[in-house]
Amino acid sequence: MLLAAGNLAAQGPESLESMEREALRQFLESNIAASSSFDDRFDAEVWLVDMSARLARLLPDTQARLELLRQIHAAATRSALSPELVLAVIEVESHFDRFAVSRAGAQGLMQVMPFWKNEIGRPNDNLTDNLTNLDYGCRILQFYLRREDGVLARALAAYNGSSGKRVYSDKVERAWRERWRTNDLDWRE
């Protein structure tokens, strides 16, 4: 794949973007699925109580808050992401508003661009549905994290469409440090 990327880079940015888009489309298509994310009931309760208290200021309804936290944990775990990182991304992207729409047209909690529905052959998916949005957003972030060799700042910038800049990744890191951190994440450059 790196050799192909090198050849396409010589052809121009449009070809490289097209190859990356196809790789991400294939990755999403093969990885959106459901599973349980907690290994143990005690771990689930501890995490849910802790995160629920942190999220209460933004989502006052306890049942809705706990359901959303379960969904976030499951989607993050399926994508090999830190659930706390996903919480920070959601805070920055939509401030936990499932109906948020950006100026560019990105939708839902993780601000997923609607063209991805057609790209992966699921045009009827509803990006304001939390489960759908979280699956798309987490898998897209997982893809960029792998592509960027685990470097969070670069992966987050790619996720946001601001590659080469630190503004977005710095916002996510700040949200993570101030509100969601439970364990260390490698924020190295």
UniProtKB/TrEMBL annotation:
MF terms from GO for this chain are:
lyase activity
Does the keyword section mention Lyase? yes
Which of UniProt's keywords are assigned here? Lyase
Domain Transglycosylase SLT, chain residue ranges per copy: 72-165
Stated EC number for the protein is 4.2.2.n1
Uppermost EC category: lyase
> Family assignment?
Belongs to the transglycosylase Slt family.
Q: Which named protein is this?
A: Lytic transglycosylase domain-containing protein
Tell me which species this is from.
Congregibacter variabilis
